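A favour, since you know our structure tokens better than I do. Just paste the record in under my message, thanks.
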Amino acid sequence: MPLPPGCPPKRDSDMKATVLVDTERPKVSESEVASILKKSGIEHSTATPAFGVVVGGDGLFSYQGRRLTIPLLFVGTKSRRPTDSKARLAEVYLTGLQVALREVRAGRYTVVRHRRLQVSINRGEFKGEIFTDVSLEKGADSNCIRYAVEVRGRGMEFTDSAVSNGVVITTAAGSTGYYSYLDKLDRGDRLEPEKYTKIGEDEVGVCHIAPTYTSRDQTKRHPLRYSVPWGSTFRITLMRDADAHLFGVTQSRKGLRITTKDTVDVGPSKDTTNVIRLASSQHAQARA
């Protein structure tokens, strides 16, 4: 049975799992999920759990995925409200959780290690991990933000300048989110919400959000969205003060305020997010 490094194998009778739901706006109660664990023969415990059961949407998956190293089972919830999270990262929905937990108990799963990014503000004043994506975006008091993105990697070095609503830097796990907004506009006259782009685990994606202008130094290019090899580093700086906030690095829905005095560095992290893939899942079948 796959377990995180350093954890000894556990007998099924000893298997423990922790339950993780949104503390502010839970889509389901922790006690309800704990009840499903009990029916599946798994103890609900926060003390040395073998894995975590994360119930919610992609925002919660992203948050827990960047802060925990134990294997995580992402569980989505279905809603009639069209604007609720689509839970694209979910391995199973809540209605199928009990069956999924039986698979985990039986060892019919693997743990997939997803690379993370690391964010550093002002050379270490603040550090954070990124499982999906990080974005610098304009706030309510600004019409746009003006910024530069310096990109450095093996055999490449360039700087993009832009006037836009912001910029997003994403891992493969996060590429179906903000990075994919352009795919949804592909027809021009209507939105296609189910379309997205999936980049590889060996890539990092960059996308300017609704720009009015971009340029790449010493070229005639006006980049909009692209990917670069994993291991590349990024430095984002504001070219003019504005109401700008960095999202994806804290639990706060307001993000971190960024000014022209700040530098935001993004690069590869040494840590990974360990995600449970069931043998019966569509994810596993797609890899076969």
The radius of gyration is 20 Å. Residues 1-9, 284-288 have pLDDT under 50 and may be disordered. The CA atoms of residues 185 and 191 lie 5 Å apart. The chain is about 15% helix and 40% strand.
